[in-house]
Amino acid sequence: MLAALIIVFREVFEAGLIVGIVLAVTGSVPRRNRWIVGGVLAGALAACVVAAFAGALSQLFAGMGQELFNAAILSVAVMMLTWHNVWMARHGREIAGEMRAVGQAVADGSKSLLALAVVVGVAVLREGSEVALFLYGIVASGGGSVLSLAVGGIIGLALGAAVCLLTYFGLMRIPPRALFATTTVLITLLAAGMAAQAVAFLERANWLNSLDAVVWDSAWLLPDKSIAGRAMHTLIGYTDQPTEMQLLAYVAVLLVTVLLMRLTGSQHSDRAIATG
Amino acid sequence: MLIMMRKPTLAAICAIAMLTASPSQAQQATEVQLTYSNGQFQPSEARAPADKPITVRVKNLDAKAMEFESKSLRVEKVVAAKSEGVINVRALKPGRYEFYDDFNEKARGALIVQ
To answer: How far apart are CA A197 and CA B112, in angstroms?
Structure first.
Protein backbone atom coordinates (compact mmCIF):
# COMPACT_ATOMS: atom_id res chain seq x y z
CA MET A 1 0.00 0.00 0.00
CA LEU A 2 2.77 2.40 0.94
CA ALA A 3 4.56 1.76 -2.36
CA ALA A 4 1.41 2.56 -4.30
CA LEU A 5 0.82 5.65 -2.18
CA ILE A 6 4.33 6.96 -2.75
CA ILE A 7 4.40 6.32 -6.47
CA VAL A 8 0.96 7.79 -7.07
CA PHE A 9 1.68 10.81 -4.89
CA ARG A 10 5.03 11.45 -6.56
CA GLU A 11 3.38 11.66 -9.96
CA VAL A 12 0.24 13.49 -8.89
CA PHE A 13 2.30 16.04 -6.93
CA GLU A 14 3.67 17.71 -10.06
CA ALA A 15 0.31 17.83 -11.80
CA GLY A 16 -1.19 19.20 -8.57
CA LEU A 17 1.26 22.09 -8.50
CA ILE A 18 0.49 23.01 -12.10
CA VAL A 19 -3.28 22.78 -11.66
CA GLY A 20 -3.00 24.91 -8.51
CA ILE A 21 -1.12 27.62 -10.38
CA VAL A 22 -3.57 27.59 -13.27
CA LEU A 23 -6.49 27.87 -10.83
CA ALA A 24 -4.84 30.93 -9.27
CA VAL A 25 -4.07 32.44 -12.67
CA THR A 26 -7.68 32.14 -13.76
CA GLY A 27 -9.08 33.13 -10.37
CA SER A 28 -11.26 35.95 -11.66
CA VAL A 29 -12.28 34.50 -15.01
CA PRO A 30 -15.92 33.42 -15.18
CA ARG A 31 -16.67 29.75 -15.87
CA ARG A 32 -13.04 28.77 -15.43
CA ASN A 33 -13.86 25.65 -13.40
CA ARG A 34 -15.60 24.08 -16.34
CA TRP A 35 -12.46 24.47 -18.46
CA ILE A 36 -10.04 23.30 -15.83
CA VAL A 37 -12.09 20.29 -14.79
CA GLY A 38 -12.45 19.51 -18.48
CA GLY A 39 -8.68 19.71 -18.86
CA VAL A 40 -8.12 17.38 -15.90
CA LEU A 41 -10.68 14.84 -17.13
CA ALA A 42 -9.40 14.92 -20.71
CA GLY A 43 -5.86 14.51 -19.38
CA ALA A 44 -6.87 11.56 -17.19
CA LEU A 45 -8.68 9.90 -20.07
CA ALA A 46 -5.75 10.47 -22.40
CA ALA A 47 -3.41 9.09 -19.72
CA CYS A 48 -5.38 5.82 -19.68
CA VAL A 49 -5.27 5.63 -23.47
CA VAL A 50 -1.52 6.30 -23.49
CA ALA A 51 -0.98 3.70 -20.77
CA ALA A 52 -3.06 1.14 -22.66
CA PHE A 53 -0.96 1.66 -25.78
CA ALA A 54 2.33 2.26 -23.99
CA GLY A 55 3.92 -0.79 -25.58
CA ALA A 56 2.94 0.28 -29.09
CA LEU A 57 3.87 3.91 -28.42
CA SER A 58 7.40 3.07 -27.33
CA GLN A 59 7.98 0.98 -30.44
CA LEU A 60 7.49 4.01 -32.66
CA PHE A 61 10.49 5.95 -33.99
CA ALA A 62 12.92 3.09 -33.39
CA GLY A 63 11.98 2.71 -29.75
CA MET A 64 11.94 6.43 -29.06
CA GLY A 65 8.16 6.93 -29.28
CA GLN A 66 7.74 7.75 -25.57
CA GLU A 67 10.48 10.36 -25.59
CA LEU A 68 9.25 12.07 -28.74
CA PHE A 69 5.66 11.99 -27.57
CA ASN A 70 6.68 13.64 -24.30
CA ALA A 71 8.78 16.24 -26.11
CA ALA A 72 5.86 17.00 -28.43
CA ILE A 73 3.22 17.47 -25.73
CA LEU A 74 5.63 19.51 -23.61
CA SER A 75 6.27 21.79 -26.59
CA VAL A 76 2.53 22.27 -26.99
CA ALA A 77 2.28 23.21 -23.32
CA VAL A 78 5.16 25.68 -23.69
CA MET A 79 3.42 27.38 -26.61
CA MET A 80 0.11 27.51 -24.74
CA LEU A 81 1.71 29.04 -21.65
CA THR A 82 3.64 31.60 -23.68
CA TRP A 83 0.55 32.47 -25.65
CA HIS A 84 -1.40 32.89 -22.44
CA ASN A 85 1.19 35.30 -21.07
CA VAL A 86 1.25 37.35 -24.25
CA TRP A 87 -2.52 37.37 -24.35
CA MET A 88 -2.71 38.54 -20.76
CA ALA A 89 -0.18 41.31 -21.42
CA ARG A 90 -2.53 42.54 -24.14
CA HIS A 91 -5.94 42.03 -22.61
CA GLY A 92 -5.35 41.64 -18.90
CA ARG A 93 -5.76 45.29 -18.08
CA GLU A 94 -8.76 45.68 -20.35
CA ILE A 95 -10.55 42.88 -18.58
CA ALA A 96 -9.56 44.15 -15.17
CA GLY A 97 -10.76 47.62 -16.05
CA GLU A 98 -13.98 46.30 -17.63
CA MET A 99 -13.33 48.51 -20.61
CA ARG A 100 -14.53 45.91 -23.03
CA ALA A 101 -17.96 44.61 -23.74
CA VAL A 102 -18.61 41.68 -21.46
CA GLY A 103 -19.48 39.33 -24.30
CA GLN A 104 -16.20 39.97 -26.05
CA ALA A 105 -14.21 39.59 -22.84
CA VAL A 106 -15.82 36.24 -22.16
CA ALA A 107 -15.12 35.05 -25.68
CA ASP A 108 -11.50 36.15 -25.40
CA GLY A 109 -11.30 34.76 -21.90
CA SER A 110 -12.37 31.33 -23.05
CA LYS A 111 -9.69 31.38 -25.73
CA SER A 112 -7.07 31.85 -23.07
CA LEU A 113 -8.85 29.32 -20.85
CA LEU A 114 -8.63 26.78 -23.64
CA ALA A 115 -4.86 27.26 -23.74
CA LEU A 116 -4.62 26.74 -19.98
CA ALA A 117 -7.01 23.77 -20.10
CA VAL A 118 -4.61 22.22 -22.60
CA VAL A 119 -1.71 22.86 -20.20
CA VAL A 120 -3.63 21.21 -17.36
CA GLY A 121 -4.53 18.30 -19.63
CA VAL A 122 -0.90 17.82 -20.65
CA ALA A 123 0.27 17.88 -17.02
CA VAL A 124 -2.31 15.29 -15.99
CA LEU A 125 -1.62 13.18 -19.05
CA ARG A 126 2.12 13.07 -18.43
CA GLU A 127 1.94 12.20 -14.77
CA GLY A 128 -1.22 10.12 -15.05
CA SER A 129 -0.03 7.70 -17.71
CA GLU A 130 2.74 6.46 -15.41
CA VAL A 131 0.33 6.04 -12.53
CA ALA A 132 -2.07 4.13 -14.79
CA LEU A 133 0.71 1.87 -16.05
CA PHE A 134 1.98 1.18 -12.57
CA LEU A 135 -1.44 0.45 -11.10
CA TYR A 136 -2.52 -1.59 -14.08
CA GLY A 137 0.63 -3.69 -13.81
CA ILE A 138 -0.10 -4.59 -10.22
CA VAL A 139 -3.72 -5.41 -10.94
CA ALA A 140 -2.72 -7.49 -13.97
CA SER A 141 -0.15 -9.45 -12.02
CA GLY A 142 -3.09 -10.41 -9.81
CA GLY A 143 -1.76 -10.06 -6.30
CA GLY A 144 -4.40 -10.38 -3.59
CA SER A 145 -3.44 -6.83 -2.72
CA VAL A 146 -5.79 -5.01 -5.07
CA LEU A 147 -7.70 -3.47 -2.19
CA SER A 148 -4.66 -2.16 -0.34
CA LEU A 149 -3.30 -0.95 -3.65
CA ALA A 150 -6.51 0.93 -4.33
CA VAL A 151 -6.38 2.47 -0.84
CA GLY A 152 -2.75 3.52 -1.34
CA GLY A 153 -3.55 4.93 -4.75
CA ILE A 154 -6.53 6.90 -3.50
CA ILE A 155 -4.58 8.35 -0.56
CA GLY A 156 -1.79 9.32 -2.96
CA LEU A 157 -4.33 10.98 -5.23
CA ALA A 158 -5.91 12.82 -2.30
CA LEU A 159 -2.50 14.08 -1.18
CA GLY A 160 -1.84 15.30 -4.72
CA ALA A 161 -5.17 17.14 -4.68
CA ALA A 162 -4.13 18.66 -1.35
CA VAL A 163 -0.94 19.96 -2.96
CA CYS A 164 -3.09 21.52 -5.67
CA LEU A 165 -5.33 23.25 -3.12
CA LEU A 166 -2.38 24.39 -1.00
CA THR A 167 -0.77 25.94 -4.07
CA TYR A 168 -4.01 27.62 -5.03
CA PHE A 169 -4.84 29.03 -1.61
CA GLY A 170 -1.22 29.98 -1.03
CA LEU A 171 -1.24 32.05 -4.23
CA MET A 172 -4.64 33.49 -3.40
CA ARG A 173 -3.20 35.03 -0.23
CA ILE A 174 -1.17 37.32 -2.45
CA PRO A 175 -2.91 40.69 -2.83
CA PRO A 176 -4.77 40.88 -6.17
CA ARG A 177 -2.53 43.61 -7.51
CA ALA A 178 0.63 41.56 -6.99
CA LEU A 179 -1.04 38.30 -8.01
CA PHE A 180 -1.00 39.10 -11.72
CA ALA A 181 2.72 39.83 -11.70
CA THR A 182 3.41 36.73 -9.60
CA THR A 183 1.46 34.37 -11.81
CA THR A 184 3.02 35.86 -14.93
CA VAL A 185 6.46 35.07 -13.53
CA LEU A 186 5.31 31.58 -12.44
CA ILE A 187 3.81 30.78 -15.84
CA THR A 188 6.93 32.03 -17.63
CA LEU A 189 9.23 29.89 -15.48
CA LEU A 190 6.87 26.94 -15.90
CA ALA A 191 7.09 27.32 -19.68
CA ALA A 192 10.88 27.68 -19.63
CA GLY A 193 11.19 24.60 -17.42
CA MET A 194 8.96 22.58 -19.72
CA ALA A 195 11.04 23.64 -22.72
CA ALA A 196 14.17 22.41 -20.94
CA GLN A 197 12.39 19.14 -20.18
CA ALA A 198 11.36 18.77 -23.81
CA VAL A 199 15.02 19.21 -24.75
CA ALA A 200 15.96 16.48 -22.27
CA PHE A 201 13.52 14.10 -23.99
CA LEU A 202 14.89 14.96 -27.43
CA GLU A 203 18.40 14.34 -26.09
CA ARG A 204 17.35 10.94 -24.76
CA ALA A 205 15.84 10.11 -28.14
CA ASN A 206 19.16 11.07 -29.76
CA TRP A 207 17.38 13.66 -31.87
CA LEU A 208 19.37 16.43 -30.30
CA ASN A 209 23.07 15.90 -29.86
CA SER A 210 24.57 19.33 -30.06
CA LEU A 211 25.52 21.14 -26.88
CA ASP A 212 24.73 18.10 -24.77
CA ALA A 213 27.52 18.57 -22.23
CA VAL A 214 26.33 18.75 -18.64
CA VAL A 215 26.96 22.28 -17.36
CA TRP A 216 26.88 21.63 -13.64
CA ASP A 217 25.97 18.93 -11.15
CA SER A 218 24.16 20.25 -8.11
CA ALA A 219 22.85 16.87 -6.93
CA TRP A 220 24.81 17.32 -3.71
CA LEU A 221 22.82 20.46 -2.95
CA LEU A 222 19.35 19.67 -4.24
CA PRO A 223 18.85 16.26 -5.86
CA ASP A 224 16.11 15.94 -8.51
CA LYS A 225 14.60 13.04 -6.65
CA SER A 226 14.01 14.85 -3.37
CA ILE A 227 10.59 16.33 -2.81
CA ALA A 228 12.04 19.85 -2.82
CA GLY A 229 13.90 18.98 -6.02
CA ARG A 230 10.68 17.76 -7.61
CA ALA A 231 8.82 20.88 -6.58
CA MET A 232 11.57 23.10 -8.00
CA HIS A 233 11.67 20.92 -11.11
CA THR A 234 8.00 21.54 -11.78
CA LEU A 235 7.94 25.18 -10.75
CA ILE A 236 11.10 26.59 -12.30
CA GLY A 237 12.39 23.65 -14.33
CA TYR A 238 15.23 22.88 -11.91
CA THR A 239 17.36 19.91 -12.82
CA ASP A 240 20.56 18.95 -11.05
CA GLN A 241 22.46 18.12 -14.26
CA PRO A 242 21.35 20.49 -17.02
CA THR A 243 22.93 20.31 -20.45
CA GLU A 244 23.98 23.38 -22.41
CA MET A 245 21.06 22.92 -24.79
CA GLN A 246 18.61 22.71 -21.91
CA LEU A 247 19.89 26.01 -20.52
CA LEU A 248 19.73 27.54 -23.97
CA ALA A 249 16.10 26.49 -24.44
CA TYR A 250 15.28 27.76 -20.96
CA VAL A 251 16.79 31.18 -21.55
CA ALA A 252 15.30 31.36 -25.06
CA VAL A 253 11.75 30.86 -23.75
CA LEU A 254 12.30 33.50 -21.07
CA LEU A 255 13.61 36.00 -23.64
CA VAL A 256 10.89 35.27 -26.21
CA THR A 257 8.17 35.67 -23.56
CA VAL A 258 9.55 38.98 -22.29
CA LEU A 259 9.98 40.23 -25.84
CA LEU A 260 6.49 39.25 -26.98
CA MET A 261 4.91 40.67 -23.84
CA ARG A 262 6.75 43.94 -24.33
CA LEU A 263 5.71 44.12 -27.97
CA THR A 264 2.03 43.41 -27.47
CA GLY A 265 1.85 45.33 -24.21
CA SER A 266 3.40 48.50 -25.66
CA GLN A 267 1.26 48.31 -28.78
CA HIS A 268 -1.73 48.18 -26.58
CA SER A 269 -0.78 51.26 -24.61
CA ASP A 270 0.10 53.17 -27.80
CA ARG A 271 -3.30 52.46 -29.16
CA ALA A 272 -4.96 53.34 -25.89
CA ILE A 273 -3.23 56.71 -26.00
CA ALA A 274 -4.14 57.23 -29.65
CA THR A 275 -7.81 56.40 -29.18
CA GLY A 276 -8.02 57.99 -25.75
CA MET B 1 -2.30 40.45 -34.59
CA LEU B 2 -2.04 37.71 -32.04
CA ILE B 3 -2.01 35.06 -34.69
CA MET B 4 0.65 36.95 -36.55
CA MET B 5 2.72 37.12 -33.39
CA ARG B 6 2.51 33.41 -32.88
CA LYS B 7 3.74 32.49 -36.29
CA PRO B 8 7.24 33.93 -36.05
CA THR B 9 7.64 32.22 -32.68
CA LEU B 10 6.55 28.94 -34.15
CA ALA B 11 8.78 29.44 -37.17
CA ALA B 12 11.70 30.26 -34.91
CA ILE B 13 11.13 27.16 -32.83
CA CYS B 14 10.90 25.02 -35.94
CA ALA B 15 14.03 26.58 -37.37
CA ILE B 16 15.97 25.93 -34.19
CA ALA B 17 14.64 22.39 -34.09
CA MET B 18 15.65 21.76 -37.71
CA LEU B 19 19.09 23.21 -37.19
CA THR B 20 19.84 21.12 -34.18
CA ALA B 21 17.70 18.01 -34.48
CA SER B 22 19.08 15.27 -36.61
CA PRO B 23 18.67 11.60 -35.87
CA SER B 24 22.25 10.57 -35.44
CA GLN B 25 23.71 7.46 -36.84
CA ALA B 26 27.12 9.06 -36.80
CA GLN B 27 28.76 6.96 -34.15
CA GLN B 28 28.05 3.28 -33.93
CA ALA B 29 26.59 2.56 -30.51
CA THR B 30 27.52 -0.41 -28.39
CA GLU B 31 24.52 -2.50 -27.53
CA VAL B 32 23.84 -3.81 -24.04
CA GLN B 33 21.05 -6.35 -23.54
CA LEU B 34 19.23 -6.67 -20.24
CA THR B 35 16.21 -8.74 -19.36
CA TYR B 36 13.88 -8.05 -16.51
CA SER B 37 11.91 -10.92 -15.06
CA ASN B 38 10.47 -11.78 -11.65
CA GLY B 39 11.51 -8.34 -10.47
CA GLN B 40 15.21 -8.87 -11.22
CA PHE B 41 17.63 -7.59 -13.84
CA GLN B 42 19.50 -10.23 -15.77
CA PRO B 43 22.46 -9.80 -15.81
CA SER B 44 22.61 -7.51 -12.81
CA GLU B 45 26.02 -6.28 -13.96
CA ALA B 46 26.60 -5.44 -17.59
CA ARG B 47 29.78 -4.20 -19.21
CA ALA B 48 30.35 -1.62 -21.90
CA PRO B 49 33.34 0.19 -23.38
CA ALA B 50 34.10 3.77 -22.40
CA ASP B 51 33.87 6.81 -24.69
CA LYS B 52 31.33 5.29 -27.02
CA PRO B 53 27.58 5.80 -27.13
CA ILE B 54 25.65 2.88 -25.69
CA THR B 55 22.22 1.51 -26.51
CA VAL B 56 20.65 -0.38 -23.65
CA ARG B 57 17.84 -2.75 -24.57
CA VAL B 58 15.70 -3.77 -21.63
CA LYS B 59 13.36 -6.65 -22.24
CA ASN B 60 10.60 -6.72 -19.65
CA LEU B 61 9.28 -10.28 -19.42
CA ASP B 62 7.05 -9.57 -16.44
CA ALA B 63 3.34 -8.86 -16.58
CA LYS B 64 3.98 -5.50 -14.85
CA ALA B 65 5.35 -2.32 -16.32
CA MET B 66 8.73 -1.26 -14.98
CA GLU B 67 10.68 1.96 -15.10
CA PHE B 68 14.33 1.71 -15.92
CA GLU B 69 15.96 4.54 -14.07
CA SER B 70 19.48 5.73 -13.40
CA LYS B 71 20.60 8.99 -11.96
CA SER B 72 24.19 8.67 -13.15
CA LEU B 73 23.16 7.64 -16.66
CA ARG B 74 20.50 10.39 -16.69
CA VAL B 75 17.91 7.89 -17.85
CA GLU B 76 14.28 7.31 -16.98
CA LYS B 77 12.18 5.04 -19.13
CA VAL B 78 8.95 3.19 -18.61
CA VAL B 79 8.96 -0.26 -20.19
CA ALA B 80 5.47 -1.70 -20.53
CA ALA B 81 4.70 -5.30 -19.55
CA LYS B 82 6.02 -7.93 -21.99
CA SER B 83 7.83 -5.45 -24.15
CA GLU B 84 11.24 -4.05 -24.87
CA GLY B 85 12.55 -0.58 -24.14
CA VAL B 86 15.44 1.06 -25.96
CA ILE B 87 17.55 3.56 -24.08
CA ASN B 88 20.23 5.76 -25.61
CA VAL B 89 23.16 6.60 -23.42
CA ARG B 90 25.84 9.05 -24.43
CA ALA B 91 29.54 8.16 -24.41
CA LEU B 92 30.60 7.56 -20.82
CA LYS B 93 33.75 7.87 -18.77
CA PRO B 94 34.94 4.64 -17.13
CA GLY B 95 33.07 3.89 -13.94
CA ARG B 96 30.20 2.09 -12.30
CA TYR B 97 26.74 3.37 -13.21
CA GLU B 98 23.92 2.00 -11.11
CA PHE B 99 20.36 1.55 -12.35
CA TYR B 100 17.14 0.31 -10.82
CA ASP B 101 13.43 -0.21 -11.40
CA ASP B 102 11.66 2.87 -10.12
CA PHE B 103 8.46 0.88 -9.60
CA ASN B 104 10.30 -1.74 -7.56
CA GLU B 105 13.47 -0.39 -6.00
CA LYS B 106 14.62 -3.81 -4.89
CA ALA B 107 15.51 -4.55 -8.50
CA ARG B 108 18.98 -3.06 -8.99
CA GLY B 109 21.89 -3.46 -11.31
CA ALA B 110 24.91 -1.64 -12.64
CA LEU B 111 26.60 -0.84 -15.91
CA ILE B 112 30.36 -1.14 -15.65
CA VAL B 113 32.07 1.08 -18.17
CA GLN B 114 35.73 0.38 -18.89
So the answer is: 27
User: Distance between CA atoms of A114 and B66, rounded to whole angstroms?
Assistant: 34
Question: Would you kindly state where each structural domain of chain A is located, as residue ranges?
Answer: 2-275
pLDDT digits (tens, 9 = 90+) for B37-57: 999 999 999 999 998 889 999
Q: Quote the pLDDT of residue B14.
A: 52
pTM for the whole structure: 0.82
Tell me the C-alpha distance between A42 and A246, whole Å: 29
Whether ipTM tops 0.90, in short, is: no
- CB–CB contact B1 A264 (8 Å): yes
Phi, psi of A190 (to 5 degrees): -60, -45
- What H or E segment, with its residue span, contains residue A201? helix A176-204
Domain ranges across chain B: 26-113
* Tens-digit pLDDT profile for residues A178-236: 888 898 999 999 999 999 999 999 999 989 888 888 899 998 999 988 889 989 999 99
Question: Å from B50 to nearest chain A CA?
Answer: 16
Report the alpha-carbon distance of residue B71 to residue B98 in Å, rounded: 8
Nearest Cβ partner of B85 from A58, A75, A202?
Answer: A58
Q: For the structural domain made of B26-113, what CATH number should be given?
A: 2.60.40.420
**Contact assignment for A64 to B21 by CB distance below 8 Å:** no
What is the dihedral sign for C-alpha A201, A205, A208, A212? positive
